[in-house]
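Can anyone check this?
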Amino acid sequence: MVPENAREPSNSQSPPAPRKRQQWVDAAKGLGIITVVYGHLYPPRLYQVHDWIYLFHMPLFFMLSGMFQKPSAIASGFWSFLKHKLSCRLGPYLMFSAISLALWFGVSRRFLPPSELHSWSEALSSLVLGRPVINGPLWFFVCLFCAELFAYPFLKLPRAYGLLAAGLLVLALLNPWFPPEDHPGLFEAGVALVATPFLLVGYFLRDAIAALATMSLLKRCSFAVIFLIPTTIISMHHLPISMRMANYGNLPGFYAGALCGCAMVICLAGVLQHSRLLCSIGRASALIFALHYLLRQYVTKGVKIVLFRPLQGVDQSAFFAAIYTIALIAVIMLLDKLFVLAKSYALRMTRDHEPSSSGS
């Protein structure tokens, strides 16, 4: 979901990029994807934790994506930048869309109520328009693609001007002539405009963000608590938030709460960066993001059967939502490991056959 770490930029006006992969980044992505999965499985009647999660979990991924924009791709010109983003954003979107269509129409439709069934034309048109109905979380790939295109002119600016542009964009979104509320737009363009300031903050303040994760342990814990307080207060006094549905409540409050929540997660990631399990989850975050919503019904039913629970009503508690989250992430990570093993086996078999083919 977040590109590989950028190299040092050649343009002195561009902010410096980290030289190597940082563990806290994987930990932050791990925390973020856990909240994404848990938020989709959390009982809808328990709104407080649900609203708290939705305030910052998607802005976090936009911010992390901004941190690792490649200066070389930005400096190479718009068409090269566009080609790169088409490959790394819309490529996975199309691949996972094909997988979703195959699984949905081959298996899932047999277990769904009539109200949730979709025709081939509806499913295909929604995918073409970037508003998938059969695997909703795929919206992020399209939205991130649009946000990066919107951010491109500003990414070439010096830091001060880039941050000023982010602030001016927020002010523009407050204009009553441009109400983004409840209007995601074609290809998530409306949501992408709201997400662009998070991407710019991640790019131009990457050093400050990294400092939150690398300061002393006591400071990391203290700042995590400090940022937790305003995040919680804002979520309690805010309308239900869903970036995908373009529901932001009070937009200035949304930005303030989201930035505080992102800073809280970054501090926690610094504390937990040595957790191999959390970092492994973070490295598999793109796959988890793309498949968890599609596989959730199979995993939850499997958990119910294994735990010998009635099939009705057991998922209406925070505890079982946590169990489902753990099981769902474990299943997808197992699939990821199997894919890696199959790929390495295929490469090894190819190498083993190379000498004989060349000798003949």
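Reply from J.R.: I decoded it. The chain is about 70% helix and 0% strand.
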